[in-house]
User: Which sequence fits this backbone?
């Protein structure tokens, strides 16, 4: 088997050595892999650092450069160059656990032997060993990414190992000139046709950084509202919300209203299906818009 590791990076050359060293350690598990790096318009010494890795000839590295377009486009573009049987993303501020490739080798056949699965989902932990969010209810649990969050209430960032032949059929969909959209928008499109299998094993280690998307999510929302609006609209239109917890359903409605306001999306009640969903949007429309107005005022002045 061969694994393609996709890493988008922007001005984080000083962090790439952690991934590099973790890949060297994992190479002892005799798993063929390629590390694809997309430099998203960095102005630091990222290219020089990667070139030094390449010169050492310890692992297979492919470096690419693009004008700054954001993480989602960087991943989309790297996907065109990936040749592995499986694909996994690794952010520039993360790195692989010391036994990550052993775990991948052990679990790969479960994906190979099922045409109903598009990915295996693993845990992420911080440098102290604390799991991001919570664990899955059981190992080898087959479900969808949508159900994990909205029905099983699984929280925190998770690591996804994709079957390449399915992953390459999908892209992160961005709207107009936006640079970011939640990865879940793509996952949910895949959920409509396939399933995932979950394992309570950590593959990747990392902490959230002050310059990352997660720490600056409110500003990300303000700059990229249309993609998020479409994301929540798609959930309300295409997914069965029957067993979704009521608080999660309210979360969907409130965020649909928020991003409709931020993206100047009109006629929002008519654009979604289901009488109950329409009722909730109508009920929360005025308080939701007042909240959204204050939200935008608060985060655009900073």
Assistant:
């Amino acid at each position: 088997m061969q694994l393609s590791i996709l890493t988008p990076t922007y001005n984080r050359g000083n962090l790439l050595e952690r991934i590099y060293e973790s890949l060297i350690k994992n190479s002892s598990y005799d798993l063929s892999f390629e590390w694809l790096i997309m430099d998203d318009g960095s102005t630091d010494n990222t290219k020089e650092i990667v070139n030094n890795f390449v010169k050492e000839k310890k692992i297979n590295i492919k470096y690419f450069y693009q004008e700054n377009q954001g993480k989602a486009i960087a991943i989309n573009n790297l996907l065109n160059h990936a040749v592995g049987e499986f694909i996994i993303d690794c952010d520039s501020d993360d790195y692989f656990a010391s036994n990550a490739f052993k775990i991948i080798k052990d679990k790969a056949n479960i994906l190979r032997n099922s045409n109903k699965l598009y990915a295996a989902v693993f845990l992420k932990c911080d440098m102290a060993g604390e799991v991001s969010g919570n664990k899955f209810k059981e190992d080898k649990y087959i479900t969808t990414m949508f159900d994990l969050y909205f029905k099983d209430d699984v929280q925190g960032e998770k690591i996804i190992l994709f079957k390449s032949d399915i992953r390459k059929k999908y892209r992160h969909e961005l709207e107009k000139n936006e640079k970011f959209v939640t990865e879940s928008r793509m996952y949910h499109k895949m959920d409509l046709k396939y399933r995932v299998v979950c394992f309570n094993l950590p593959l990747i280690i990392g902490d959230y950084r002050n310059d990352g998307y997660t720490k600056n999510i409110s500003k990300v929302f303000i700059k990229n509202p249309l993609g998020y609006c479409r994301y929540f609209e798609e959930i309300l239109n295409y997914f069965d919300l029957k067993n979704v917890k009521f608080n999660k359903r309210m979360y969907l409605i409130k965020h649909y209203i928020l991003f409709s306001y931020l993206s100047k999306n009109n006629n929002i009640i008519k654009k979604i299906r289901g009488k109950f969903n329409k009722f909730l949007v109508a009920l929360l429309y005025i308080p939701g818009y007042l909240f959204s107005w204050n939200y935008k005022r608060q985060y655009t002045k900073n």
Remarks:
- The chain is about 40% helix and 20% strand.
- The chain has two domains: 2-206, 217-300.
- The longest strand covers residues 195-206.
